[in-house]
Every structure is written in C-alpha cells, then in structure tokens.
Amino acid sequence: MSGPSLKRQALSGMRWTVSARVLVQLITWPSTIIVMRLLEPRDYGLVAMSTVVIGFLTMFGDPGLAAGLVQTDVLRDETSRAASALIALINLLLLGVLMLAAPSIAAWYHEPELTQVIRVASLSLLMTAVATVPQAHLVRNLRFREMALALIAGNVAASLATILCAILGLGVWSLVLGTLVLSALRSIVIIVYNRSAVWPDFSRGLAPVRHLMHFSVHMLGNRILWYCSMNLDVMVLGRLVHSTELGSYSVGASLAAIPGDKAMDAVNRVAFPTLSRMRSKRAQFNYTYERIQRMLALFGFLVAWGFAAIAPEFVHVVLSEKWRLAVIPLAMLSIAAPIRMLTALQNTVNNAAGVPQASNKVLGLTCLMLPVGVLIGAHIAGINGAAVSCVVVYAIVFFVSTLYTCRVTERDLRDNLRLILVPSVAGISMVIVTWVLRALLLVHLPTAVLLCVEIVAAAAAFFGTVHVLGPAVLSDARALLGELLRPEKSANPGIAS
To answer: Residues 147-175, buried b or exposed e (16+ Cβ, 10 A)?
Structure first.
C-alpha cells in the first residue's frame, strides 16, 4: 500500500474510531451512572471477582493468532480457517473449565453467589470466539468504520439492557446480562460486515498457522502480562477485603480507567496495524509515534488528573453517599491513569516494531511489583493504601518502559520525556487550583455548585498553563484533530507522511 493511501486510511480509521468512542461515551456514561445509583457496591464486587477470572482465561482464548493474522505479510484462506478452528476449540475447553471450577473460585473468595455469576458470564467466551478471526480480517484491511459501528451497536444495546434489568431489580445480573448482550451483538455485527463467519477447518492441523506461532506466542505472553498488570490489584484485594469494599474500589478503578482505556482502545485499533506497516521506515514510524504520544499526554493529564482533583465532589453529587469509599481509589487511580495510558502506547509501539519482548519485560516487572505494592498498601490502609501503592508502581514501570521504547525506536530518553513535560506540569497546576478552591469555598457553596466551579477553574488552569509553557503542543493537537476530522482537506504533513 502506498504512503498516501496508508495515510488516508489511517486518518479515516482514527476519525471513525475516535468518533465511535466519543459517541459510545455519551451513551454509556449516563447509563453507567444510572446503574451505579440503582445497584449496590456488593453487586460490582461480585462482578469484579468474576471478571478477573474470566478475563484472564479469555487471554488464552486467542493465543495471539488474531494479531498474527493482522501482522503477517500474506494471509491465505486456509490460515484463517485453521486459526478459527483452533480458537473455537480452545474456547470450548475454557468454558468447560470455568463451569467446573466456578464453585472452587467462589469458595476462594468466600462468595457462594459467585458460582452462578461465573457460569453465566463465561458464555461470553463463545460469543467472542466466533468473531475473533472476522475481526482480525477487518482490522487487517483497515476497515475501522465497520469496527466502529459494531462497537456502537453493542454498547447501545448493552446499556439499555443493563438499565432495564437494574430497574427490574435484578441486581448483579443486570451487569452480567449487559455484558452478554454487548458480546453477542458486537460479534454479530462484525460477522455481518465480514460478510460471513470464518468456518473452522482443522483438517491440516496446525500446519497453516505454524508460521504465525513465533509472533503469536510473544503476543499471547504480552496480552497475558498486560491483563495481569491491569487486574492484579483486584485479584489480590478480592481475597483480602469484603465484596462491598472491593465493589467501591472496583468502581473507583473503572471510572478512573474509562478515559484512558477508551482512548487507548481507539488508538490501538488504528496505531498497531498502521505502525506495523511503517516499521521499515524509521523516521515515519517515530514521527507518527511522537504525534500520538503528544495527543494522548494532553488528553490524559487533562481528563484523568482533572477527575482526580474533583473526586470528592463527583462521588457525592453524581454517585451518592453509598459510594463514599470510592473517593480515594478514584482520585489515586486517576493520577495513575495517564501514566498507564502512555505505557500502553509504548507497548503498542514495541509490538508494531516487531519487538514484543520489550513489552513483555515491562509487563513482567509490573506483574512482580503490583501485587507486592497492593499487599503492602492494603495492610497499611485497606483499599485506600492499595490505590496509593498503584500510583507508585505505575510511575516506576512507566520510566522503565520508556527506556525500553527508546531503545526500540532509537530515540533519546530526554526527548521522549520532553513530549509529556508541558501536559504534566499543566495537570499539576490544575490540581493545585482545584484544591485551593475547595479549601476556600467548601463551606460557602453547595457541593453541586462547587463541583461546577472546580471543573471550570481546572480547565482554565490546564489550558492556560499549556498556552504559556508550550503553545506548540496545542497547535499540534489542533492540527492532528483537524486531520482526523477533515483528512481529505488537510494540508499538513499528516499523521504519517
């Protein structure tokens, strides 16, 4: 594919993916808040326990083959069919394991109700499996419009189903059934856009996919390590604290992660296939990476640290007092969110450059440090101490990750850190301004009014600082945003020119 053609498809893909994410957030955020007000912290604690277990086994459901199908130079039909057969077989085995192991998992967490929750929620494995290879085809062909529409359809249906079930008083089952609706409808739409399912064919065994195995094994290891690095805190706390406390921590963690996770999901769907095709052109590769990093840093420090600054008022006004235990986890994990986001981008860059081993080393370090940090923090101050320890661990991991990515991309460490300097300083100024306002106005204004004042002041402090210290950061962000919204009219060099 020619450079201009790839550029157009990358910009179009980014535009569709980002637009879909924005629309999904506009739909799911209000529905999420409604459901949180209807359900109890314990409901979210049970779902957090089941999600950690099922999510971990889901990593084995696709042993890195989907990424291999995207990354390989030549893709044959027999390779896709063999991959589909292997993925289907593995997921059937995993479903059986979960059905049998559910009582033991529930006993480990001291939650008998968890048995049926795990058994029903694990049906999502089959729904996801049938769409894995069709989705890889769409991603390989940069058909991000279709992926975006599948995402929108699934989330809209899931939001409506979850709210309806919560209103009907189904409790924890509202969250379980919502997840199943999301998996089912999204898979159906993906298969429709691919024009058919990819029928399994295992007549030749592993021969058609053997050439993908080396890359796929590294990718599988990368995904498993990444999942553990993102969820080990919940795994550890699920054993140490009551489900109500875990539910409060889980909600705080989920809210803190939403901006970063959604942004990274949108970026990764475009960045990985796009950067993979640029890996032989180092200057083009690095230029694209730098622009994405600047944009993510600006977004991450604004939204996540802004969220951290207003956490007490947000929980009180939006979620209600029953979620007051979520305040400190929400604030601390929001501080960690942009660091995690940038680390995730570096993992994507390393994988696209064909060096997933670098990401695996970083993720392995996270998996070693995070449970130790959470255990120490939880021993000292419960879920609040665990949240503080996460900030420390993710900061150390980000620095190590940056060192590895600089080696892969042959860039200087100082140049890499300089890209996030202005947004991080702006984030600190925003937090300070918010804290000062809270100290001055807390006793004089209703909480809801104070929340609105803090939001306006925080945004003004952030953009004011960026404008003073690094106006070029805003200019580049506006230019990149313009290319995403009007790629055919852009006169700029482009995301990857």
So the answer is: bbbbbbbbbbbbbebbbebbeeebbbbbb
